[in-house]
Write a structure and sequence with these properties.
The protein is of the alpha+beta class and 95 residues long. The chain has a single domain (2-94), classed as Alpha-Beta Plaits (2-Layer Sandwich). It is built from three helices and four strands; from the N terminus they run βαββαβα. It is elongated, with a radius of gyration of 19 Å. It binds iron/sulfur cluster (SF4) (2 copies). The site of one iron/sulfur cluster (SF4) has 14 residues, from α1. One of its GO terms (molecular function) is oxidoreductase activity. It holds the Pfam family Fer4_7.
Length: 95
């Protein structure tokens, strides 16, 4: 079995004050600034959807306690099942 880690920032748009610290601090340039404003009148940060490595720099640089979290999951990849599927596909191809 092998573990595959999936990470991404979750930004609470209504708590974000648009200071852009997370945008400047992200080494992957994975956070962007919206053209739109939240209800408090700030342009808010949002995740581009790509590139997060889970380093948490954005979390530690954000001054708003409720604005940004980094979520991390471990996806368990079962190598045995993967090999069985590959073997089946290979056998079918040989017939
Ligand atoms: S956890 Fe790191 S890579 Fe991911 S968005 Fe935050 S600063 Fe960028
Ligand atoms: S650091 Fe926090 S408050 Fe500043 S733009 Fe990013 S999410 Fe918003």
């Amino acid at each position: 079995m092998a573990d595959e880690e999936i990470s991404f920032p979750v930004i609470n748009l209504e708590e974000c004050k648009g200071c852009q610290r997370c945008i400047v601090g992200c080494p992957q340039n994975a956070i962007l600034l919206s053209d739109e404003m939240n209800n408090a009148g700030y342009q808010y940060a949002y995740y581009s959807g790509y590139g997060c490595t889970g380093c948490k720099d954005c979390y530690f640089t954000c001054p708003e306690p409720l604005a940004l979290e980094v979520h991390q999951f471990k996806k368990v990849v079962d190598d045995k099942v993967g090999k069985m599927i590959k073997a089946k596909v290979a056998n079918k191809g040989g017939k």
